[in-house]
Amino acid sequence: MHGASHDFSSFAVIPAAGKSRRMGRSKLLLPWGKGTVIETVLATWRDSHVNHILVVVDETDESPLGDLVAGCGCDVIRADAPPDMKASVLRALKEIQRRWSPRDHDAWLLAPADFPTLNATWIDTLLAEHDPRAPRPLVPWCDNRRGHPVLFPWLLAGAARKLPDDSGIKGLLIDNPPREIAVGDWIMFAEMNTPREYQRLKDHFHQEP
């Protein structure tokens, strides 16, 4: 992890407390490359210019996930069975506020943990496009679709805590329209929720030159 010389701080928020019910086993512990999905994802974040990486895991999970995250040099936040992704995100934002007291123009980036094809260039492009003087959400844009990660200015952390129960974190983008940044390719939209999707994505990825 090696934050760039930006005049703002940046925080990656990685929710990793899901149950992987459709996969039938932990997606994040599946093999990918020379390690696992979660190790690949975190290596990409570490290759980017983000300053801090926080991963939220379920403290009742008895798998080695938390230890793998810590072994990658990232901050592990152990939450008590968060019911959904929003709960995990809010737990991470609370920890960021407690430890670093970010300024309004600092940034937090959100992306799923089961995203092994994430590219550090996409992350760094968003960081480069973030304007601390006029902070607003940024989303990658490709093929007329929005992808991941999403960059939020820290000033929206408070708004995240006030979202209605039936609204996910994406609800922040309704009242705070993002700027869309042309970056990425179709791979950012690939799903990895079932064994078949995982195998298809893995086979394609390893066929790339």
CATH topology: Spore Coat Polysaccharide Biosynthesis Protein SpsA, Chain A
Radius of gyration: 16 Å
Number of helices: 7
How confident is the prediction overall: mean pLDDT? 92
Structural class: alpha/beta
Helix content: 25-40%
With strands numbered from the N-terminus, the spatial order across the biggest sheet is 5-4-1-6-9
Euclidean distance between termini CA atoms: 27 Å
Low-pLDDT residue spans: none
Morphology: globular
Regarding quaternary structure, how should these chains be classified? single chain
**Highest-level CATH class:** Alpha Beta
Number of domains: 1
Find the CATH superfamily: Spore Coat Polysaccharide Biosynthesis Protein SpsA, Chain A
What is the level-2 CATH architecture name? Alpha-Beta Complex
State the total count of DSSP E strands.
Answer: 10
Tag the structure with descriptive keywords.
209 residues; Spore Coat Polysaccharide Biosynthesis Protein SpsA, Chain A; five-stranded mixed β-sheet; three-stranded mixed β-sheet; globular
Please describe what this structure looks like.
The chain is α/β, with parallel strands linked by helices and 209 residues long. It has one domain (10-205): Alpha-Beta Complex (Spore Coat Polysaccharide Biosynthesis Protein SpsA, Chain A). The model has no long low-confidence stretch (mean pLDDT 92). Strand 7 (138-142) and strand 8 form a beta hairpin. The chain has 7 helices and 10 strands. The protein has helices at residues 37-47, 65-71, 85-100, 120-129, 157-161, 172-175, 195-205, and strands at residues 10-15, 31-32, 35-36, 52-58, 75-79, 107-110, 138-142, 145-146, 150-153, 179-182. It has a 5-stranded mixed sheet with strand order 5-4-1-6-9, sandwiched between helices. A 3-stranded mixed sheet has the order 8-7-10, covered by helices on one side. The chain has a two-stranded antiparallel ribbon with strand order 2-3.
